[in-house]
Amino acid sequence: MTNNKQEQENKKEEIVVHKFSNNGQDQLRESILVDEKPYLISYAFSQDKNKDFFVTPSIIEDKTNNRVLRPPKIEECPYEPYDFTANSINGYYLPLVKQQTIDTIYQSVKAEAGLYNEIHEMALRLLSFNIIGSYFQDRFSSLHYLMIIGDNGTGKSAFGDTFECLGYRPVKAANTNESFWYRVLGTVEIGQVTIIAEEIDRLDESSQIMTALKEGYQPNSKIPRMNSDNSKMDFYFPYCFKIMIGERSPHPSKAKGVLDRTFRYKAYKGYPEKKIKEVRNPQGNKERQFALDRLNELRRILLMFKLVHFKDPYIEVNVGVDGRDEELCKPLLQLFYTLGASNETMTELEECFQYFLDKKNEDKKDSLEAQILDLVTEYTKENKIYEISSRGLWELVTKYLDGKPDDNNPDVFYSTDYGKLYINTVTKIAKDKFGGKPNHDRKTHTVLNFNEKILTRAARNYNIGSKIKTVRCDAHDAHDAPREDMEV
What we know:
Elements (H helix, E strand, L loop, with lengths): L2 H8 L2 E4 L2 E2 L8 E6 L2 E10 L4 E5 L4 E3 L4 E4 L12 E2 L1 H14 L2 H15 L4 H14 L10 E5 L6 H11 L3 E5 L3 H8 L8 E5 L8 H9 L7 E4 L6 E4 L5 E5 L5 H8 L2 E5 L9 H4 L6 H24 L7 E2 L4 H16 L4 H23 L2 H16 L3 E3 H11 L2 E3 L6 E4 L3 E4 H12 L2 E3 L7 E3 L2 H9 L10 E2 L16
Parallel strand pairs: 1-7, 3-8, 9-14, 9-15, 10-11, 11-14
Antiparallel strand pairs: 2-3, 3-4, 4-5, 6-7, 12-13, 16-23, 17-22, 18-19, 19-20, 21-22
Helix pairs in contact: 2-10, 3-4, 4-12, 11-12, 13-15, 14-15
């Protein structure tokens, strides 16, 4: 074998990464610029010297996969890179960050975000908590998304711009195709960036993007894709925090799985103290430059705070809700509890989630599925028989929902709230969502048989009333004393 062939076989693949932790098994490394040169920074502790410090290697030798992982150069960053001077890392930022608590971090983020967004208090909290949470997305078992809907001039873009200034490696995109999503998320490790998707009005028309959204809420998801010449199967990691901004929500029938994992906020015109777009483009204005420097300083602190606390062991908690509601809320509640948040901060977080959870569940309670379930439940209780014909169910739907029947087709109904409905659509919902089993022995028409217990369990999905309260779990008792009686 010639030397050239040997060199070619021994040459390691070089891959750009924004962060790497070997899926949490190793120390976390984050890409930064040090005096405008790319490095990977990690937090270390020397047992011999009893001292902690930041180290900044230039590459990672991934011997297991025979590859070299390197940080992106300035021109390769799809976001504003985190920049430091060499002397500031251990001399200034390490002692500064070690003085910070999750409470001081939260108050700083909320104060900055409030300067650029005149929005509902709960929306300001939601933005602030998620800015911090985005830095710890690797540690979550599931994510919620945010969706900001509003007309032009309502300030919805300011919400996204604020997150772009302070959130974890945010990549902003508008009207992009699925190739962008896969390339920016990558094949190396989950949570490389966060995404701000603007102009989402037609987002639901791309099945590939919808797949990335539907799968991207949990860290174990992978999406297979063939490479350009169909010679190799690559697996992409869709998991990361995402904000979606647009004038309208995706269509519920196309994006139900996404909307179910999303907290939505309707934006209205406000008059914030500062305009984020002006601050991001100072044009020599000293006041604007000072405000921009404050934002950049805070995002450096957020990254360093993440590095110092990334390995803090989780404290198990019970949050008072279960199912999908728990998946949406618990990761962030558990993070703040673990990091020692005060009762005041935890209460703000709980109230914020309760507000958006109630709004979300109210929307669910008004959904077509909930209406059909109510009709089936009332009918079976009143008639004391757990069956109804598909035609009988259709008659109930067209009788009790606002709208008008189609003059030419009795199997079509124009609902005021849910648009054009078909008898087959209603029957399918009753079968798929509420366990209605067709009785094929009937010759004349389909009869759906229901189970009382299944209907009762299905109704829980639309019930409102569970209250969020974070308490520490004992190893033997999931309902331990409230947090104010526990030492964190």
